[in-house]
Amino acid sequence: xxxxxxxxxxxxxxxxxxxxxxxxxxxxxxxxxxxxxxxxxxxxxxxxxxxxxxxxxxxxxxxxxxxxxxxxxxxxxxxxxxxxxxxxxxxxxxxxxxxxxxxxxxxxxxxxxxxxxxxxxxxxxxxxxxxxxxxxxxxxxxxxxxxxxxxxxxxxxxxxxxxxxxxxxxxxxxxxxxxxxxxxxxxxxxxxxxxxxxxxxxxxxxxxxxxxxxxxxxxxxxxxxxxxxxxxxxxxxxxxxxxxxxxxxxxxxxxxxxxxxxxxxxxxxxxxxx
Length: 274
Description:
Blueprint: H1 16-23, H2 26-37, E1 44-49, E2 52-53, E3 62-63, E4 66-70, E5 75-80, H3 87-107, E6 118-124, E7 135-138, E8 154-160, H4 170-181, H5 188-202, H6 204-223, H7 229-244, H8 249-256, H9 260-269
Parallel strand pairs: 5-6, 6-8
Antiparallel strand pairs: 1-4, 2-3, 4-5, 7-8
Helix pairs in contact: 6-7, 8-9
């Protein structure tokens, strides 16, 4: 029985683990933001490593993929969306994310007048709206005169990597093509992203992290909760050490209560052969 849906070597930027691995490279994250916004980003800082927000008791948690702030204090949430949610469903998700981001800023003792500009970006390998555009950029405007903006500095951006016929920059086009189909064009940003993907796939520590990540997701889906992250990581480290010691697969399975098939797959994923 496979441990996860994909082997590490089959991951692409559309996969959650690989997307985070790419975007937690500061230079690559800045490059992606510059391609989407078509403006320079001089510096960013990570506000949290996959920040989890909980608005209150028994509230639905929000887990942000890439949560950063630039040198001008604009706050970004960048998400890879691989589901089949409709535009309306994604809009509600964005609305909720926005509320939690604002609450996070105010929870640090700031007044509402100190709310920062925010841009929520969803990268979709499908058309969430159905117009065929590459880029859907939303801001709050007046119904009577769309040129009259509210000025709340809250933007929502939906990217459709399958779009056609819209004039976007070559940089963004190259990024969209790479996310959509893995095409590596003669573009420095895309080439750097592809190199990062290859490095992650070859890195033993990263492969181990992926297996831990998959075990955590599997347990979370099975139990309907996210407890056990530490236990899952400890188990994976134990299996890794036993594999490094060339312990027979059957003995590892008996000691860790993991099936032999899973032990074999873990060994394959992290490149241990004996």
